[in-house]
TrEMBL record:
It comes from the Bacteria. SUPFAM superfamilies: L-aspartase-like (SSF48557). Belongs to the PAL/histidase family. The lineage of its organism: Bacteria, Bacillati, Actinomycetota, Actinomycetes, Micrococcales. This is Histidine ammonia-lyase. It comes from Leifsonia poae.
Length: 521
């Protein structure tokens, strides 16, 4: 992961997922590549020349969408561009998270810097200045159909660049920031509002940047959560007296699925040298094989990894794209196209929601095994301190089950839906923005379910005393014990669950495991 304050250069080279996260989440400053600024000015000269042409050119001297055949005279075109942005800034609902808005602004800036959109140099400089000043346009939850770009979200950002609408001002460390009128915020930061010229309204709103920004953030977060899932599974195998034999490399090689091999290797490393595992490896052990939720963890976690790999490939291709309509080709033509359609991104956003739901479902099943005396290999019912008086972790499993049920609903794909718009000109849309919004909720839920498993497995391992867990799992238990007490009488549980959730979602559980086991794949 990039350091927070590493400067990110935006230009001809495609951005990486890590760079998107660095700017969106950690306020890394952006610089504009000089050669790319030259390309921006060259493409603007092409648009200026077409603006004087008596032949109509879409988005330059015509209306938009279903009004593409309406010719607009030269003295009305600045109004045309401003009106486009104002009318399209039509979002509704709660505010979208700051990191999402910053991600979509950065990605739109990246496309503008390709020199394929025809915007003014001042426009790209303003977008960079807004990011560096910590000025974040207020974007609403609803408004994008994921086709013709994330129109409403991007229009809210363009509106702020024009010095209109509302923004939040402040760095990520300041929390949500303070609400201000865009004109006041720009003036305070010494940023001159953009006066849009021909084509610029379209160039600022016609992209997949919102869904791609959320995909980039999700790729980063899910990668860490899948490694954490391996850690949690290993803790459960250990504390439930499961066997590590099924994770052997030669068995995994019989089915050469890449993600499965990585997950199995992680679990092996987490269980290496565990006294608890060693305690029941002798001939007296009658266990033939474990339940699927233990034995098949690499297969499920691995499939999720491979799905994540495909999503990463799609994201990398999209990060290398110049999405606009119309677009300036390399030989100087201005052509209409359909590259704004969000289907490639929408599909993988839905795929990842399916993977997240399944990984969480398996995690919850491991949690449940700890609580059932018929299946927990000698532990107390519900891991209670005084059976009958105490309920132990009974309701923590209810919480996990409720989240898993929600994740299954969120796994229903958004990308199979389409509602025609713009007087049937835009008669098929991707719903990629909706797919991205629900994936963010899915990943939050996955982190919570894994946290409950980690907390449960930690208590189960403590109850195996005097047997000791292995060093890697012991390091995780130690981190958990810094925020949540060990076995004992019933107590107010919600704060402990939330504290362990924070450990998981911040990456501290993974860091504890890797501090002993080394980097997990």
């Amino acid at each position: 992961m990039l350091l927070t304050k590493t400067r990110i250069t935006v230009g001809a080279r495609p951005l990486t997922v890590d760079e998107v996260v660095a700017v969106a989440r950690h306020d890394a400053p952006v610089d504009l590549e000089r050669e790319s600024l030259d390309a921006v000015e060259a493409s603007r000269a092409i648009v200026d020349a077409l603006a004087d042409d008596t032949e109509p050119h879409y988005g330059i001297s015509t209306g938009f969408g279903a009004l593409a055949t309406t010719y607009i005279p030269a003295d009305r075109r600045a109004q045309l561009q401003a009106s486009l942005v104002r009318s399209h800034a039509a979002g509704s609902g709660p505010e979208v998270e700051r990191e999402v808005v910053r991600a979509l602004m950065l990605l739109r800036l990246s496309t503008l810097m390709t020199g394929r959109t025809g915007v003014q140099r001042a426009t790209v400089e303003t977008y960079a200045a807004l990011l560096n000043a910590g000025i974040t346009p207020i974007v609403r939850e609803y408004g994008s159909l994921g086709c013709s770009g994330d129109l409403a979200p991007l229009a809210h950002c363009a509106l702020a660049a024009m010095g209109e609408g509302q923004v939040r001002v402040g760095a990520a460390s300041d929390g949500a920031g303070t609400v201000a009128d865009a004109a006041d915020a720009l003036a305070a930061a010494g940023i001159r509002p953009v006066v849009l010229a021909e084509k610029e309204g379209l160039a600022l709103i016609n992209g997949t940047d919102g869904m791609l920004g959320m995909l980039s953030l999700a790729i980063h977060d899910l990668g860490a959560l899948l490694r954490t899932a391996d850690v949690a599974a290993a803790m459960s195998v250990e504390a439930l007296l499961g066997t590590d034999a099924v994770f052997a490399d030669d068995l995994q090689r019989l089915r050469p699925q890449h993600g499965q091999a990585l997950a199995a290797a992680n679990i092996r490393r987490m269980l290496a040298g565990s006294p608890i595992v060693a305690s029941h490896k002798g001939p007296e052990c009658t266990r033939v094989q474990d339940a699927y939720s233990l034995r098949c963890a690499p297969q499920v976690h691995g499939a999720a990894r491979d799905t994540l790999g495909h999503a990463t490939l799609v994201a990398e291709r999209e990060l290398a794209s110049a999405v606009d309509n119309p677009v300036l080709t390399l030989d100087g033509r201005v052509e209409s196209n359909g590259n704004f359609h969000g289907a490639p991104v929408a599909y993988v956003l839905d795929f990842l929601a399916i993977a997240a739901a399944d990984v969480a479902s398996m995690s919850e099943r491991r949690t449940d095994r700890f609580l059932d005396p018929a299946r927990n290999q000698g532990l107390t019912p519900f891991l209670a301190h005084e059976v009958g008086v105490d309920s132990g972790l009974m309701i923590a499993q209810y919480t996990a089950a409720g989240i898993v049920s929600e994740l299954k609903r969120l796994a229903a794909p958004a990308s199979v839906d389409s509602i025609p718009s713009s007087a049937m000109q835009e008669d098929h849309v991707s719903m990629g923005w909706a797919a991205a919004r629900k994936l963010r909720r899915s990943l939050d839920g996955l982190g919570r379910v894994l946290a409950i498993e980690v907390m449960t497995a930690a208590r189960g391992a403590d109850l195996r005393a005097p047997l000791k867990p292995g060093a890697p799992t012991g390091a995780v238990i130690g981190a958990v014990r810094e925020v949540a007490e060990g076995p004992g009488a019933d107590r107010y549980l919600s704060p402990e669950i939330e504290a362990v959730v924070a450990l998981v979602q911040s990456g501290r559980v993974l860091e504890a495991a890797e501090s002993v086991a080394g980097p997990l794949a």
